[in-house]
Amino acid sequence: MPVYTYECEECGVRFDARQRFSDAPITVCPECGGHTHRVPQPVGIVFKGSGWYSTDSRGRNNLAVPPAKSDADTNSSKSGKGSAPSGTEGGTSAATPD
Questions:
Q1: Which residues contact 26 (CB under 8 A, 6 or more apart)?
Q2: Burial (CB count within 10 angstroms: exposed 0-12, middle 13-18, buried 19+), residue 34
């Protein structure tokens, strides 16, 4: 169950109350009987382990850079003599009419 902090608008006293999410907010101050409201509090976050925050997007070593092409790959793509498509390696096509 969460702990909520309340503040009285009349006397300024602050107090904490442990309540369920489904409980209605406390509207009456226990000290003076004045009107109260919830005070927003920062949420405590603790990162443990070797999660994304310590390994991802840190430094230039983790940047996604495509690998450089080798000279053999560059020459074969320029000359047009790359590997043949998967259906034509036998030299004749199955779709050739007789």
A1: 4, 6, 17, 19, 36
A2: middle
- List pLDDT tens digits, range 43-84: 888 777 666 655 555 555 555 555 666 666 556 555 555 555
Per-residue HEC secondary structure of the chain comes to CCEEEEEECCCCCEEEEECCCCCCCCCECCCCCCEEEEECCCCCCCCCCCCHHHHCCCCCCCCCCCCCCCHHHHHHHHHCCCCCCCCCCCCCCCCCCC
pLDDT digits (tens, 9 = 90+) for 9-39: 999 999 999 999 899 999 999 999 999 999 9
